[in-house]
Amino acid sequence: MDCFKSILHLLGVPCHPVPSHLKPRPAALELSEFSKLPPELTLYIARFLPLESTLSFSLCCRPIYFMFGSQAFKNLGQNSQCFEFLTLLARDLPNHVPCYYCKKLHAIKTAQQHIFFTYRHDTPWLPCWNANYSFTFFHLHKNFSFTVFQMAMKRYRQGLNYSELLNLLSYKETHYQDGYVKHYTALGRVAHGSMIVREQKIVMVPLAKSRLIQGIQQVTVCPHISLSWNLGSHGLHGLVERVDWFRWGIPRVDWNWQGLVRVCPCCLCDYSLEFVQFEGKAEAVFVTKWQDLGQGRSPMDYKWQSHVGHSKEQLWRTVELDRGSVCAMFEGERRLRFESTSLLTQQDRKELLKLLEHT
Fold this sequence. Notes:
By secondary structure, this protein is α+β, with helices and mostly antiparallel strands. Helix content is 31%, strand content 21%. It has helices at residues 2-11, 39-46, 51-58, 62-74, 79-90, 127-139, 146-158, 163-168, 302-308, 312-315, 325-331, 346-357; strands at residues 96-99, 104-107, 171-177, 180-191, 194-206, 219-220, 225-229, 239-243, 261-263, 269-278, 282-292. The strands form 3 sheets. A 6-stranded antiparallel β-sheet has the order 3-4-5-11-10-9, with helices on both faces. Strands 6-7-8 form a 3-stranded antiparallel β-sheet, with no helix packed on it. A two-stranded antiparallel sheet has the order 1-2. α3 (51-58) packs across α5 (79-90).
């Protein structure tokens, strides 16, 4: 019975005593052709199945389970094996998704708790929270959750409404420090069966204090490319592109870059850079990127790993991607140049300039 309780734990279902008035279930095996096979032949067949399939097979009825399921569950230890088994279970559980890190199923109704700003610091973090924080905080926006990403994609494949889950994956933040303002926004959209995230980062400085830009930290485009300022530069036009890991120098950005959609050679990401002056009061750089995160079926998916992978082999694998194709999937049309300022609302513009005046 302990193994059955373990299965219920994986499903997130509490184990309650069976009420005495319920009738016992019929013996399923007696209604199957398997009842005519000797146990030795059934065991022989199971030898050719992957472990996750054997485990699923063992759940069809109690006699089959006691035939080989208990031993199979003892062998279930590795993340990949457990995740594959949970993935098979989740096919018949429309309101759950498998978690690679927690080794259990998460209910879609609990999506809110998997967003960073709702993490509870007075309780132990779930393993997937720790994993989520380590890769999305730096390579996506800090409130992005792979678990909620899975949930949204499952609802999409079911043909159900997933707008609330997409809203949880959206992000907006404005803050200022040392005389300049940063404004971040992110929005998710499903296109062609993949999750596409558009994120925009705006760094704004007053024209009278443009040299303050020298103190600004680099703006990350993706794990492979960051935009940082040359200490000898004057204002935003000193921006240079550098590859974050190996620090390969690339020629200084010039005005031909304005709005040009470029592509990262190592992940499914398009990005655009634009310099703008506002009413003679401030200048700003707009960094907009579009990332294809894949179908959300597994954190080991190559599309997802190209954005967040920790190993050199995963992170620096060259990908085949036409320039502007990810941008086109999100925006609905092919563009070789993108007007980043079109995403900034008049209200946000007024608030940023007002905030800059008080820095």
